[in-house]
Amino acid sequence: MHLRRVSRHNASSSYVYSAQIWSESAHRERKQHKNRRFSCNATGANSDEGAAIIDGKAIAQTVREEIGVEVASLKASTGKVPGLAVVLVGGRKDSETYVRSKKKGCEEAGIQSFGTDLPEDVTEEELLKVVADYNADPSVHGILVQLPLPDHINEENVLNAISIEKDVDGFHPLNMGLLAQRGREPFFVPCTPKGCVELLERSGIEISGKTAVVIGRSNIVGMPANLLLQRRDATVTVVHSRTPNAKEVTQQADIVIVACGRAEMVRGDWIKPGAAVIDVGINAVDDATKKRGYRLVGDACFDEIKPIAGAITPVPGGVGPMTIAMLLQNTLEGFKRTVSA
Ligand SMILES: Nc1nc2c(c(=O)[nH]1)N[C@@H](CN(C=O)c1ccc(C(=O)N[C@@H](CCC(=O)O)C(=O)O)cc1)CN2
User: Fold this and answer.
1) Which of 32, 62, 130, 228 has the smallest C-beta neighbourhood within 10 Å, fewest atoms?
2) What angle do CA 302, 221, 228 make, to 5 degrees?
C-alpha cells in the first residue's frame, strides 16, 4: 500500500495507504437517518448505541491461537512444522512493520519463518532468483513478496514466479482464476478478502441469500471479495469509480465491503439500517492532537455509520489484523497439503 497525500472532507489533507484509487471526489452529504434497526448479532454487540463493533483484533488473536494449537499437534505427529518465506525489497517503514508482524505471528504460532531483505536497487532478476530458491525449498510452504515493490520491478513478473502451491498471498493469476470458477478450488485465497469473510462468519452474520455490495474492484481485495461472497451464495454488486449511483446501490445492501482507498468516502446515508459494514481502508489523517501526528481512519465514515449499521469493523483493529492471521492460516493449509500428499 502506498503512502500518499489526498484531500478529505473536514480535513486539509491526509495520507492514505492504499493499493487502489477511487477516482471520484469524496461524498460530502451528511443526512440524518431515522429508521434505525440493529438486527446484527455480531461479536461484542452493543445494540443500544448502534452497530455491534466487530473486534478484528480479538478475532484475529483467536484464529492465531487456533493455528498455534494445530501446528503443535502436527509437529507432534509429523515431526515437521510449516515454513513461511517473507521477501522484503527496500526500506519502506510501513512494509518493514508489516514484515516484522508477519515474522512475529509465525514465531507465536510455531511456524518457521525465513526472511530475505533485499536493497531498493535489487534487480528483478535477483529477486526472481530468490523466489525460485524458495520455490525449490521443501521446508518452505508459503512465499510472500511484500508489496508494493520499487517501480523498476515488474510486480506481475514477480507474483507470476511464485509457485501456485506456495502462493500464500493468493495473488498468482492461476489461483485467482481458480477462485473465479465454480466447482474449482484455488490453492490459496488472498488474505484480506478472506479475513473479511472470516469476520462476518465468526460474528454470526448470515451471508447466504443476502445482498452484498463490494466497493472497489482491485485484484487483491475487491475482485476476490466479490468472488468469495458469491461462493457463499450472496447476490453481489461491485461498485467502482465509474458507478454513477454508488450511494443508491450501496443503500440496498445487507453486507457492504468497502475497499475503495479513499478516506471516509462511504457516509452514513449510504448504509441500509442494520447492514454489516466491513471496512478494508487504512488511511492516516493529519491530527496534531495525536502523538504520531496522525490518526487512522477507514474508507467508511465510522462515526456516521455506527448509529445506523447492524455491525461495523473499526479502523484500526478491524480487517487489518485479520490479514496477518489469514496469512498464517494459508501457510498452515499449504503445509497440511504437503504432509497429507
Ligand atoms: N504481499 C503483500 N503485501 C501487502 C499486503 C498483503 O496482504 N500481501 N497487504 C498490505 C499490508 N499488510 C500486510 O502485508 C497489512 C496492512 C495492515 C495491517 C494492520 O493490521 N493494520 C492495523 C493498523 C496498523 C497501524 O497502526 O498502522 C489495523 O488495521 O488495525 C496488517 C497487514 C500491503 N502489502
Assistant:
1) 32
2) 100
- What is the set of active-site residues? 102, 146, 169
Which pTM value belongs to this model? Answer: 0.88
- 216-269 pLDDT, tens per residue? 999 999 999 999 999 999 999 999 999 999 999 999 999 999 999 999 999 999
Map grid coordinates 530458491 to a residue. 133
What's the rounded Cα separation, in Å, for the pair 173 and 179? 10
| Strands of the sheet with 311-312, listed across from one edge | 52-53, 311-312, 276-279, 255-258, 211-215, 235-239
The residue whose CB lies within 8 Å of the most ligand 1 atoms, and thus the one to mutate among 146, 168, 312, is 146
What residue type is 158 in one-letter code?
A: V
DSSP string, 83-110: EEEEEEES--HHHHHHHHHHHHHHHHHT
- Say which amino acid occupies 32: Q
User: What domains can you pick out in the chain, each with its CATH number?
Assistant: 2-54+203-322 (3.40.50.720), 79-174 (3.40.50.10860)
Atom of ligand 1 nearest to the CA of 322: 20
- What is the ipTM metric for this complex? 0.98
Q: Which atom of ligand 1 sits closest to the CA of residue 145? A: 1
**Helix (H) / strand (E) containing 127:** helix 124-136
Best residue among 86, 94, 98 to mutate for probing ligand 1's pocket (most ligand atoms within 8 Å of CB) is 98
Does 324 contact ligand 1 (Cβ within 6 A)? Answer: yes
Q: 224 preceded by cis ω (within 30°)?
A: no
